[in-house]
């Protein structure tokens, strides 16, 4: 906001701004009327008229004739300090006027700058560049009617092969499985990681863990074999596993955790994300959620992230034919980013020489279904072996599949296969452990769980 003839000022701990320059920048109109008993200021913006007098903290709010808002604003708003006239300009507290118009307001003490943020408008502006990716996001979940829950089931398998030319290569594997039922009030489900003892031995050997650390990891592996969980929207969580029953020498032992206070301190209303909100998330709204109102520098960082995403995944990077939009990112596209960061041509050429292959291909159909293929291979460098990575993933509202394979020259290879199916259901998630269960407060249950 440019203030041509009167600058904002801090008075009594309040940031005061000339009302005309601010309101007109935001698209409104200002009227000023002098009177024998005091001066009256009226401004009209976004379907409402705001009227107040200098020296008074009360603002009368009324809808204009062209107002089409479903939710009316209060008839009166109280300012935290009274407006005043200085140098022929009317000063008002910026926090009042901004919040009345729906802006978040913050103060950056380092730059002595007030930040006004209309999150919805900024999200819409960012999303103008990401209609294709947002189509994928909108198609991420099946459509749910009122009262329905989301049911998801995932299965996967990971295998690691360690090359050994003398004694023969060995392959280690683990099976993964998970089920979840979720609505806006709770989420409940189970997960299982079935890892062989040989896999655990390999993990200990490769990471250099001692016996005590290995026992701790073994306990975690045991807990994950058949872990059940309940997550409440109020922040209450419960966990059960056969390993807990064995430790307590009882059946149906659930650990209880109340995270409501911690969530409140982090500014979160609850633990379970609204399915409605999740299905409506966009690139813009996600970035804007990260946008601070108290830091000019952090603000700039988020906007730079939006520009970076646009340079890689913006609509203009896709080619659309026959209802399918295709994006390809090659090694040249990747290193063009480094030019913008000021990296020299010689450094870029040296870094590019590491890649024998680098390509990401994304195809998005008319419904928002996505197919992504990633291929990457690097040449061997001093002390670093050659690496090859292949990944493919397909996503629709009903199913997600992913396959990943990685190969490190002369050392080993890894493969991951995973599938998740999801659908709408009338079933409801559990909100608390079954009747007859033993619930142990995680902070006070040490004695019960002592081996």
Structure, described:
The chain is built from 14 helices and 25 strands. The chain is an alpha+beta fold and 451 residues long. A 14-stranded mixed β-sheet has the order 18-19-20-21-22-23-24-12-13-14-15-16-17-25. Strands 3-4-5-6-7 form a five-stranded antiparallel β-sheet, with helices on one face.
What is shown here, in short?
With 451 residues, this protein is an alpha+beta fold. Helices cover 27% and strands 38% of the residues. Helix 3 runs antiparallel to helix 10.
- Helices and strands: which structural class? alpha+beta
Largest sheet descriptor? 14 strands, mixed
Rounded radius of gyration (Å)? 29 Å
| Low-confidence spans | 444-451
Features of the shown structure:
25 strands; 14 helices; 451 residues; 14-stranded mixed sheet; alpha+beta; five-stranded antiparallel sheet
Write the layout of secondary structure elements.
Blueprint: E1 9-11, E2 14-18, H1 19-25, E3 29-33, E4 40-45, E5 48-53, E6 58-63, E7 76-78, E8 84-86, E9 89-93, H2 94-100, E10 104-108, E11 113-117, H3 119-127, H4 131-138, E12 149-162, E13 170-182, E14 186-195, H5 197-207, H6 211-225, E15 227-232, E16 236-240, H7 242-248, E17 253-258, H8 260-265, H9 275-280, H10 283-289, H11 296-313, E18 319-321, E19 324-330, H12 331-340, H13 345-352, E20 355-364, E21 370-378, E22 387-395, E23 399-408, E24 412-425, E25 438-441, H14 446-449
Helix pairs in contact: 3-10
């Amino acid at each position: 906001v440019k203030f041509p003839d009167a600058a904002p000022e801090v008075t009594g701990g309040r940031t005061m701004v000339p009302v005309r320059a601010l309101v007109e920048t935001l698209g409104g109109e200002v009227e000023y009327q002098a009177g024998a008993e005091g001066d009256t200021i009226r401004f009209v913006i976004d379907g409402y008229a705001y009227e107040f007098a200098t020296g008074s903290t009360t603002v009368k709010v009324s809808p204009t004739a062209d107002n089409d808002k479903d939710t009316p604003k209060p008839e009166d708003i109280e300012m935290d300090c009274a407006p005043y006239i200085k140098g022929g300009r009317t000063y008002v507290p910026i926090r009042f006027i901004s919040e009345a118009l729906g802006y978040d307001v913050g103060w950056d003490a380092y730059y002595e700058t007030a930040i006004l943020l209309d999150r919805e408008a900024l999200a819409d502006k960012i999303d103008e560049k990401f209609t294709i990716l947002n189509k994928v996001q909108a198609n991420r979940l099946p459509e749910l009617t009122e009262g329905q829950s989301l049911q998801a089931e995932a299965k996967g398998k990971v295998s690691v092969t360690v090359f050994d030319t003398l004694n023969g290569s060995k392959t280690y594997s683990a099976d993964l499985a998970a089920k979840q039922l979720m609505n806006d009030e709770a989420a409940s489900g189970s997960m299982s990681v079935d890892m062989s003892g040989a896999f655990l031995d390999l993990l200990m050997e490769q990471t250099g863990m001692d016996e005590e650390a290995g026992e701790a990891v073994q306990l975690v592996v045991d807990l994950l074999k058949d872990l059940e969980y309940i997550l409440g929207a109020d922040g209450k969580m419960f966990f059960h596993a056969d390993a807990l029953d064995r430790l307590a020498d009882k059946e149906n032992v659930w650990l209880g955790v109340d995270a409501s206070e911690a969530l409140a301190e982090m500014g979160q209303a609850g633990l379970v994300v609204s399915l409605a909100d999740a299905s409506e998330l966009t690139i813009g709204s996600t970035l804007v959620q990260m946008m601070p109102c108290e830091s000019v520098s952090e603000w700039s960082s988020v906007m730079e992230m939006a520009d970076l995403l646009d340079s890689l995944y913006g609509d203009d990077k896709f080619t659309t034919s026959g209802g399918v939009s295709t994006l390809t990112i090659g090694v040249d596209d990747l290193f063009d980013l480094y030019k913008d960061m000021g990296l020299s041509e010689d450094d870029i050429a040296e870094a590019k020489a590491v890649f024998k292959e680098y390509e990401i291909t994304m195809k998005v159909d008319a419904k928002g279904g996505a197919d992504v293929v990633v291929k990457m291979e690097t040449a061997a460098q001093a002390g670093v072996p050659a690496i090859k990575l292949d990944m493919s993933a397909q996503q629709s509202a009903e199913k997600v599949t992913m396959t990943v394979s990685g190969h490190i020259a002369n050392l080993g290879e890894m493969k991951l296969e995973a599938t998740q199916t999801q659908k709408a259901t009338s079933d409801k998630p559990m909100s608390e452990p079954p009747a007859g269960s033993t619930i142990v407060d995680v902070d006070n249950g040490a004695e019960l769980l002592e081996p």
